[in-house]
Amino acid sequence: MLRVQVIAARPHVCLARELQLEEGATVADAARLAALDAGEVAGYAVFGLRVEPSTVLRDGDRVEVLRPLQADPKEARRQRARRQRGG
Fold this sequence. Notes:
5-stranded mixed sheet
């Protein structure tokens, strides 16, 4: 048996579930069994490293459900720079 944690963070809310899975379970299995209402999913990570849903999990892994970006990081930086210059 594997013990894994599945995390989904949204603004102002962090959802988490501890699961026990059979050996050979995948990220997709964990996400489905956790049944977190994470909204739109942009992908998955294990301890911050992006993985495919077919990635086989190991005991103690933390699966993170990734959300789509809310803003383009380059455009956000441009806007901050413009505001700091006073323009």
